[in-house]
Amino acid sequence: MRKVELASTQNNEPNPQALGSATSQQERAGVSLVTGAVGKPSKHESAVQHVSGSARYVDDLIEPANGLYAAVIRSPIAKGTLSKLDLSAVKASPGVVTVMTIDEVPGHKDIGPVFPGDPLMTSTEVKFFGQVLAVVAASTEMQARRAAQKAVIEFDPSAAGYNQPLLDPRKAVAKNSLVRPSHYMTLGDVDAAFAQSAQVLEAKQHVGGQEHFYLEGQVSLAMPTEEGGMLVYTSSQHPSEVQKLVAEVLDIPLNRVTVDMRRMGGGFGGKESQAAQWACLAALLADKTGRAVKLRLPRQDDMIMTGKRHPFANQYRIGIDAEGLIQAADIEVIGDCGNSPDLSDAIVDRAMFHADNAYFLPNARIAGHRALTNTVSHTAYRGFGGPQGMMIIERAMDDIARAVGKDPLDVRKLNLYGTDSVNPERSMTPYHQQVEFNYLPEIIEQLEDSSDYRARRTAIREYNKTSPILKKGLALTPIKFGISFTLQHLNQAGALIHIYTDGSIQVNHGGTEMGQGLHTKVGQIVAQTLGVKLESIQVTATRTDKVPNTSPTAASSGTDLNGKAAQNAALTLKQRLVEFLVAEKSTAENPLTAESIVMEDGMVSWGSSDDSNEPETMTFAELVQAAYVGRISLSSTGYYRTPKIWYDRDQAKGRPFFYFALGAAVSEVLVDTLTGEYKVTRVDILHDVGRSINPAIDRGQIEGGFIQGMGWLTTEELVWHEDGRLLSNNPATYKIPAIGDTPPVFNVELYEHANDEATVYNSKAVGEPPFMLAISVWSALRDAVSSLSDYTISPDLDAPATPERVLKAVMDVQRQLAETSLNQEAEL
Amino acid sequence: MIRFLLNDQIQEIEKLAPDLTILEYLRTVEVQRGTKEGCASGDCGACTVVIAEPSNVEGKLSYKSANSCITFVGSLHGKQLITVEHLKQGRQLHNTQQAMVDCHGSQCGFCTPGFVMSLFALQKNQSAASGQAVQSFDPANPVNPTQQRHQIELALGGNLCRCTGYRPIIDAAANVLSEARSDSFEGDQFDQQETNTWEQLMALRSEDPSSGSVSEASERHSSERHFFSPKSINELTGLLAKYPQARLVAGGTDLALEYTQMLKPLDVLVYTGSVAEMKTVSLNDASLTIGGAVSLSEAMPYIQQVLPEFANMMERFAALQVRNQGTMAGNVANASPIGDTPPVLLALDALLHVHSAEGKTVIPVNGFFTGYRQTTLPAGGVITEIEIPLNKTDWHRRVYKVSKRLEDDISAVLAAVMFKVEDGLIVDARLGFGGVAAVPLRVESAEQALIGQPATVDGIKAAQAELANTLKPLTDVRATAEYRLQLVQNLLTRAVLEYQQPEQAVTVSSEVSAHA
Q1: Same domain, A695 and A632
Q2: Of A361, A382, A417, which one is at a domain's C-terminal end?
Q3: What's the pLDDT tens digit per position in A65-97?
Q4: How far out from the chain centre does Cα A228 lie?
Q5: Does the distance separating the beta carbons of A53 and B83 come in below 8 Å?
């Protein structure tokens, strides 16, 4: 018989570490989850609405009568000083109600999320193509957009740097053009280790950025409220920040602003900091006109005006022994941050935290620079710099393999971090966090076997010998991804649960639903905790007036943080209900203990310790009804903060991550050496989600993350003109994966192992980590090209590896081979 | 007046902006917001709807998916517009919707209505063709998984999803198909209503002769704005003569971008889709003739029959929603240097039949393209037919499309390489290219360099050198000039390799399908 879970503290005195450990001790003590909502592949809470067209996104809300539509006027060049901004034709355009520039903003004019640098609009200096100059509101969307076309914009051609943007991050660093100071991490004695290395390798790489291409573009609807405040419906991963910035821009207290966010049509990081500008502009216009204002970016505006995944320029110098074991590593990563800091400090930090990926670098120096260039300010995107950091060490693994004549998989295995039992001394990261609970050797072993890696490797070598034009490539790459916001204070969350008198339950928490299934998982957690059916739970829109001061839904933390907060709220309510039942049902001769009460699947049962009697039962709804009559509060908040984490940035030492998510993937590709075209023909994945709260949702995150990562490294190419204009500014020129890109063989398995840290139901975060499994595709492409040299040459292949870049790599290898044979002939 | 069915409601519209798109109409006029705007350029499929119209079989409808963001409302006359809101019966999900739920096919859900509508069209077309399709399968293995996967990719290649990685959606589509194929499948409410709907649509069509044309007063000038649906070539050319500023709409899949992306008003539109004379395809031993208003989808089975290399490339022409609307005549008249059919038509020596108020002329495609988006099409002229001579049956014919993404992508280079070999030597050749100049280009000097040479890797060297010397491609967002120049030469190599060793796969797609 299951024991009741009891909250160990009052919810008003949050002691999350105690709460967290109480739960996990019970689970470690063997409370299995054979029954209940957690662990089931429940469908997405909105699945039926999605397929019916009844799921409402911000643009689908019926606009209030008399509402207005806004459009932005943007800079046509990337760098310059405005000499004229004539908006008279805009104002005179049919349907126009008002036009605003930065001069009319009553409060803060800069909305930089961490550091200043993001003016809401500019009427002086333009720092990037597409920067907002003004905003117009009209009676229809088309009227607003056509009016915006009529602005007369002129620049001073004699001003310094006119139309000569700085676009190269390496040049920017050389000129000390940085958005934030550089950061360095050091472990061991790097110079001494290089001196003792058998061989030293070095290489540079460029890793492209990535457009989020959420299917629903940026959108906000702002409605003035009677108390001089604002109600904002927005598609944002960070409602609390939108609330704060709208209040600051309007110069009113935060308590006058409410932000409502039911769902996003995709976020991927692109709506973490960069949804706020559009909400603020809509709110400004609404405040000025007293009318509701909707601002929705058309796709091309969205692609031009919002930041992307940072492009990175990386390089390494690595010393190895004769076997390919790394002795010393000197790694530099440069993030192309665009024109302002935005979130770039933390993003480049995360690239540095992942420049080791899964490998022990006994002596390491890692430098991270934050280049200031004249593009849109690059921002959060799934992985948050981690993927770009991993790319350099994964390139090095392949290069080492070619240098020592080994299968790249053997070099990767050789260099892995140690485990608790094997090579435990190989566990220190360059930032001085001990890697604990490293299951990667086991994961890789299992995947190597299930994917038939060795036999396929042999078959591919044979195929490549006899196939003149087509070449196959194969690669297995692992990931180790650190979980927690590296900005410590963000690792907290709140929740609010109401139980109504019919037993139905409303759950609200600080996380936002962007398709990742967060609300489904939180619903399952609350249902499990209270022992009710999942159907009894309704998770409602994220609202700043229900749960305040929330963190962005980002860093894969949504379920870890909000799930735990919701669980704590549910535990508080459960304790009240149990105490009530004990008080109600206990008699002097028959005392009822809390331990004998079972709440499961919407039923509550209790009985004496005498097993001969049938336990008494009632429904959860009946218990709730009785508790209400008994004057028990049926509403509670819950709170959680992540334990154990800290980071001393001055020392570059600490434990920034609560735990690591792990996984590995094997990809096989087929490459056409005449055109550089290729196809990913098979992918096998084994990924660690801890104990899965919802295996269907977790699988969806793994597959979706992988394909998105594959797009980043293959077809998704951002192209800027040398004058700073983004040329790949629509889906006709920027190609995310389509259905035919999904590999015909796509085997995805969950690695079953409960998280050793006390996370909610011992699950692991899953939003970002699988994205980086796609590095195996890039590595397999290099493997196929390398086959032209019988695996002696490790080709350069910048990302994204478009067919054009693959053909270039092919031709480079062919040229090197021709030169080598010419030299050999000359020697003869 | 135009009349159409919006789901099961008859709509009669007297006044209408000619450039109003179906998506705008649904979201702002009807306030039915299940249909989403993802890009407003026909590239993402979030706005997919299904348009049903009477087929050539009495009582039967044809169902085609379309991008509502780039399809004008005026083109709906006499048709049924089916949107995602209409699929449920009461609280009961349609089986395409249920399959998506069962397979976890939605995450953020924004692309989902579009996928559901593409799945709905797939199901309708599968059940219509099921008898025939099943026969071509191995009876011991009635569903060939590779063929089915290809069928699904063709149906859904124009729908982008950023969340799922597509695997669950592919599973949902497979469920829908196997259900539609099963003997116990009794059809849905649309099948049950099909005859009724057919009759309703025929009645909507048969009213007064001006039906299908609508106008509205212009905000900007005194004259009215019009959407005309002429019923004959004479009527059409008469309208073009009367309104010199008129724009022709066939599929409108490129024209609509002037409105949705550049926000230009389109004041007078003349729609070719109601001209019966332009809606026929004829095939005989000498030629394949495709009417100017025949959609690319409708033309494909005929092309497949006689020019399979052309048809295979056409599967990668945009995506199904666009092929269902767009026409070959539109692709030619649009004269984009990156259109996919012109290089092939150049290599095939195709002829354009052109009508205008002045009369009828025949213009060879070779010479038609005179400059960037400029042609010899006379003012007030319309391509009523494209005639493709079938005189190259004994030629080695190849059509190659190279793009960043396999599906729904514009070519970096399109190459039509065709040559005739006698006694080991090339005796005649055609080389048509897209993406290498301001116009679709036939390179006759390189063709000459092939003649008299053996069809071998060495034999084509002079032609490759000629291509490298003559072509001056551009560097743009899709490819560099160097890559394009290398591709045209390498694709010539590929064509002779395929000639010399037909059994050796030298393309990724042939290798993948050979081992699937």
Answers
A1: no
A2: A417
A3: 999 999 999 999 999 999 999 999 999 999 999
A4: 35
A5: yes
